[in-house]
Amino acid sequence: MALRLLYTLSAAVAAALTILAAVLAWASLRVPLLGAVTRHGWQGDGIITLLLGLLALAFALNTWVERRPSTFRLTALFTAFLGALIFATALVNLLDTERAVGAAQDELGVDLNRLIGLDLESFVDAGEGVYAAIAAGLLLTAGSSVAFAAALASQDRAVAPGRSGCPRCRAEPPPAAGFCPACGAPLK
After folding, report:
1. Which of 1, 122, 147, 166 could form a Cys-Cys staple with 7, CB 3.0–4.6 A?
2. Over the stretch 144-153, which tens digit does the pLDDT of each residue have?
3. What residues pair up with 25 in beta bridges, in sequence order?
4. Is 7 left (phi over 0), alpha (psi -120 to 50) or beta?
5. Contacts (Cβ under 8 Å, ≥6 apart) of 3
6. Pairing label, strands 124-126, 35-40
């Protein structure tokens, strides 16, 4: 119960971070005398991370409806994968922001820093949204991986050698129980 609650809480916080990332700036370009151009999460890959975060939350909430331990393990493993996708998407955007400066100088064919002392890197900044999405991906991956590992470890301890357990989830119920306390299956 506590494991399921912590897992769902980590997925909810990660989803909230992806919502925040979608509304924050992902990149900005400041040009002297011309102003600034800002690209927000909803204008690009922030939508992808948002959808992945909300999908992970929906799967985590489903573990409260579908109570089988096997479903919990599979869901935790899947949401760890979704967290890795969120992290990778945001990291690629962060690296692309930094790479855009070099590409701009290559396109101009001139090293402006050496020529006139103009450092293009000082004009391009990765926004807070990218970092929020990276944090969401890390949190979701870590929380889901820990939940999967703990659920897998509890499965291995569920049935002691030589004793019979629940036919559905293999948990060891109390001796006089008519139903499994873990999954609710009738015991024979």
Report:
1. 147
2. 999 999 988 8
3. 40
4. alpha
5. 147, 150, 151, 154
6. unpaired
